[in-house]
Design brief:
With 66 residues, the protein is of the alpha+beta class. It is 27% helix and 21% strand. It has one domain: 2-Layer Sandwich (Alpha-Beta Plaits), CATH 3.30.70.20.
């Protein structure tokens, strides 16, 4: 599974990087960005789901890998 942030929907609330700083950070303008590259571990998937559930703009998406 991979995690992505849709830059069109992200409004820079910062909940993702406040809740899960090991997966998310902020760019120079305060918008969220994904810090990891590649497949998420089981623990990272759980953390990513926490961020998905707390993003007020629903900008964080989890995608199954083919």
């Amino acid at each position: 599974m991979r995690v992505l942030i849709d830059p069109e929907r992200c409004q820079g609330h910062g909940r993702c990087y406040s809740l899960v700083p090991q997966l998310f950070g902020e760019d120079d303008e305060g918008y969220g960005r994904v810090l990891v590259d590649g497949r998420l571990t089981e623990e990272q998937e759980h953390d990513a789901e926490l961020a998905v559930g707390n993003c007020p703009e629903s900008a964080i998406e989890l995608h199954e890998e083919a």
